[in-house]
Every structure is written in C-alpha cells, then in structure tokens.
Amino acid sequence: MQMISGKSAGAVRAVGLAFALLLSTTSLAQERRFSADDLPKIVRIGDPQLSPDGKAVLSVLARANLKDNRWEGELTLIDVATKAQHVLSRRMGVGSARWSPDGRSIAFLAQDAGGRAQVHVLSMDGGDARQLTNGKTPVTQFAWAPNGATLAFAAADEEPEKTGDARFEDGFEVGNHSFLDRAARKPIHIWTVDVATSATKRLTSGSRSLPLGLPPTGAPSQLNWTPDGTSLIFVQAQTPATGDADTSRLMRVDVATGSVQPLLPTPTSVRVPALSPDGRSLAFGMARDGVPAHQARVMIAPAAGGTPRDAAPDLDVAVELVGWLPDSQTVVLSGSDGTRNGLWLARDGKATKLDLGGLNPASADIGSNGAIAFTASTATRPAELFVLPAPGQPPAQLTSLQTVTDGVTLGRQETLTWKSDGYTVDGVITYPPDYQPGQKRPLVLYIHGGPVSASLQTFGTSSQILAAQGWIVLEPNYRGSNNRGYKFQQSIIRDATAGPGRDIMAGVAELKRRGLIDDTRMAVSGWSYGGMMTSWLIGAYPQAWKAAVAGAPVTDVLDQYTTADSNRGRAAQYGPSPFVGDNMASYSRQSPIFQAWKARAPTLIMSDVGDWRVTIPQAYKLYRALSDNKVPVKFVAYPVPGHSPADPIRARDVWRRWVDWLKPRLASAP
Fold it and tell me: Considering the entire predicted model, what is its pTM?
C-alpha cells in the first residue's frame, strides 16, 4: 500500500474539510428558518368561549390581509367532539363573542357603518346576525342577563351637539391623561338593551366611570349579573382618565332603580371581578397590599360585602383570575412560574397546579360543566386551541391551524439560571438552528417589556427570528419580572434600571463562563421596558456592545410619570412624586438618558408617534443624545397609534429592520 506523506495528508484533509463546508453551506441554503416574513402567516386565536352544554367552543380566528394591511377575524364555532370548524361571521372588528345562557344565541362585538363597535346577536337556529345597539360611541363590553332577554353593555357618553361659535370652544381640562389626548374623555357608563326590541335604558351616570385601559392593557372591569338578574357588579373609577385607573372600586348597581353602592368597606383598587355561579362570592384581581407595583393577587369576598381574603396566600406566584368552577368554591388562576405559564385550582386558600404537559396556556374560559378551553403554545408551534375536559384529565387539541413552522428548522430552547445580588435569576436561551456544542456564537439579548412580565420557554417569534441568523439569544427575566415570587418582583421599586441591569449582565457573564458566546460580538435589544433596559445598558456598559435596538424606549422616567397613559400610577414603581421634596434626584438616577452620553454602540430606535404607553419624546431624547455624541444612530417612527405597530406589514417591517441593523455589526470580530 502506498504511504501518503504528511504534506499530502494535510492536503487531503483540507480538501475533505472544504467538501464538508460545501455540503454544510448547501444544507444551510436548503434549510428554511423562521423569519420576519413568516409573521403574517401566523393565525391569531383569541378569546375561547365554551358553550353552556360544553359541546362547542367559540373563538375569533384572525388572519393577515396584506392587500389591505389588516387582521381579519372570523367568528368560528369548533365542535369539541369532531373538531369541525364552522365560520359564523366575518364582520369587521368581530370579537368578544358570548353565549346566551340557553346556548341558542351568540352576542358579539363588530363594527357598524361608522366603524364603531356595536353589539350584534346571532341565532344558532340560522339567519344573519342582527345589530342590537346603535350608539354614537363604541361599546366596550357587554354581558347577558340570566334570563337571556336583556344585555347590559358599557359605552362612553356621547359628545353634545354644538352649533355656531360653540363648535370651536374645544378647550378641555387636563387631568391624569396621556399627553396624546386631544379632548376630555367622556365617562363610560352602563346601559341595558332588550334583545327583542333593541330598547335601551341607562343605568349609571355622572362623572365617575368604568376605568379605561388602553391596549395592550385589557379592560380593568367586566359586567357581572347577579343570578336573580336584579343587580350588576362592576368596577368604577373616579374619572375616565387613564391615570385614574388606580382609583377603581367594586360597585353594585340596582337594575330597577340605578342606585349604585360600593361593595367593600375599604376603598381598594381592583380589576376584572367575577361572581361565583351561586352568586354568593366575588373574586377579583388586586395588587398585594394594595400597592400597584406589587405582586398581582386574586381575592375573594362575600358578594353581599365583607373583608376579602387571598384565594391562594401560600402561592408565591403573580396570578390573574380565569374564573370560577361550577362548584362556586374553586377559582382557576393563571400565572408564570419560572419560564412556564401555568393554571392553578384554588380552594379554601390552597392552590393545586394543573398538569398541562408541555403547553404554555394563555387566554382561557371555564364552561358550566367544569371544562376549561384555552389557547396554548408549545416549543415548536404558535398557539392552538385546547380543551381540558376536567382537572386531572389530559388536554385535547382542537385546532391545527399553525402551519407556519411546518418544514422550518427552529432553534432549540432551554432555561438558564444564575445568581445576581443574592437573587436566583432565570432566562431562556434560544440556540441557532445549526448550533453545535463547543461553538461560540454572537449573542443578542432580547429583553422583555413590562417589567411585570416574563420570557417563557415556548415558541417565540422574536427569539426564533434572531436565532435564525446564527446568533445565540438570551431573554433574561431580570428583577421586576413576575415569575419568581413577590420579593423578586417588588425589588425593582425605586431601582428601575441599575439592579435589573446587574441581573442581565450576570446572565451574560454566565454565558461567557459556559463558553457559549463570542463576547466580541454582542448586541442588546428590546421593546418598551426592554427598550428602557437597552438604553440603560448601552450607557452603563458602553464597551460591551457591538450594536443595539431600542424599541419604544423609556429613557426618562420623569416623562413616563408626567405624559404616559398610566402617568401618576408610575409613582408606585419609581418612587413618590418627583415634584415633592428631593425625589427628582431619584428619578434622574433611574433614567437611562442621563448616562446616554457614555454610549458607543450603534443604535436603532423605533417608536410609534401615537404611543400612549411610552411617549415618543423619550425616543427623540435618546436619538438626540446619541447623535450629539457622534454615535451611529437611526430613528424610525411609525405614523400609527399604539404601543407598537399592530398591522401585519408594519409589524413585519419592525423585525426586518431589527435584523438588518444587527446583521452587519455582528458579522465578524474586530
């Protein structure tokens, strides 16, 4: 046998390596990864509602219409036994579908000819839906009366007709509003409407109002009929100003007389009450100790009035109320536990977690038979619809709508934990689809908003888009996140940036220690509070980053206190009013803008011009600070309302820009 010289052997190895790299490159070219272009392909599944007999689920399925740049919803009926789907309505703005008590009719919201949300009713016996309300202001919510003959609904008062000079006398008194408001908001009041005749009757009036929550915040109230149909229980605030939502109180209105009385002896800011099926108990959400920045709890009180008690005092999880089981003794709670979402049954002060396998539940509804319908995502699939027939039984999947990940190679996820300032912190790592152990890849931080939120180990469009570029993605759950208990969440109070920043950098250090990342190629990014932490980190750790993306960034907490929709309520997080005593110094200390002059990372800033949650002047401040200090910066503003672009094309554009900004800056080491 002929021997090969060392030099020849090296040449053979080089050829073999080149061939292997060619095969790898070819494989990557053929491999399809998740991208921003896949975002409009996801089907949105919302607000599942079980029928009274438990045999069907109502849900609104929304798909992107790129021609008209909007999401179009279909009110869809899904049979639990056969999983067959039947579209009931395709009206514009369809949503909030609710079964009549006998299951023979469905009421839902849809837009009228003027684009206002109105209540429509559809008979399950057939025929077209009928518009039931016809007000000049949109309906915000509604509820069936127990007899099915009447609906209660909420809508803002109408503007009075003006003529002559009065048409231009439009100055308005500013209270705790967003600075984007261009007129005083009218109080939201309760009405009833007769299903047969459409005749309406006003129940409440005056300056007090159902609280207003602007998206992405949900409605702080819901209407609850007492079982005898004589009263409604709801939440009422001092004014309709968004900043006054923390004055919300539980109230009862007598349907016959319109008399309104408080339910609790002590004023307490509450949200989303739900009456037990027997009408004897009331469950509602409330911040622990009544402090808005503290952990979310679910309380239970006698419906006739009395002292509330914690539904699950030993469960150190921030929980929201799903609803009551038919026994009127057990409530279902939802929340984040570590890097998973969960559902709990709480009875007599004790909570038991439901076994849902690898599902991460989101919106849910409880049927009169005790079944639970819910949407949930998995590690490899966006949300589908499921039903849990009874506690202890396995959930059944009702839909298979999400084909967007079929044939797509996704990045693997795992949960990472580390120590920071005595806390145990966690986060989610998403690896590039082709990652091999031992490799060091560029790092992109994707920091969640909130801060009362958490990144979860489940399918996430953001992490998959970034990981598809070959980057390791870390989503850190810094202090202030709501997934590791009360102490961890409330420790952010008066420490909005520096403490969370240390938590995040400790996570980066752990990745370095494990040899996973190339620390010469790191980027930091996030939206909302994630944009705030991005703005903080590029100033506090200026040498760490090759690039940054700050979406809707909080850069000055003074602006957040004075101009955003929640304004005054922010004092619970940042500290007492900045205009009292020497508190301004504390606000400055927590604001990223005051150290932005130290930043060096090329930064992309994005924001909506009509963002009521994080006002756009804060993005302008960051742009000006970076530009004046000769830092490469681009500022992209979207001419739309809301906290982030809601339409499919602009939402896709956000992520195209995000990737395009980072890609050249993480391409190679210096």
Answer: 0.94
